[in-house]
Write the structure tokens for this entry.
Amino acid sequence: MGLLTKKVERHPCEVEISHCFDSLHAHVKFLDGAVVYPGDEVIVTGPEVMAPYGEIVREEREAVIYRASKLEQLWTRMTGDFEFMELCEFSFSEEVTL
């Protein structure tokens, strides 16, 4: 893997979709222990998974991981903190109370 080249890998995975009152989530678990690093892209193949309300659906699928190049990894590590800061909410006021 060079400075600008990308690598494509295929891995078996399990997709879990929850559509319940307590939890609304989608998780992907790699069955062969694959790890995703900063800058990598993951696409799960197959048809759309829909969970009816109140249910959790689990399906085995194949995931395609597009590995980031060395330059993309470096860029993601350098700029990741700035993107996180966009999620933060700050407030400044003139009043000081203790």
Summary: The chain has a mean pLDDT of 83. The chain has one domain: 8-85. Residues 8-85 form one domain.
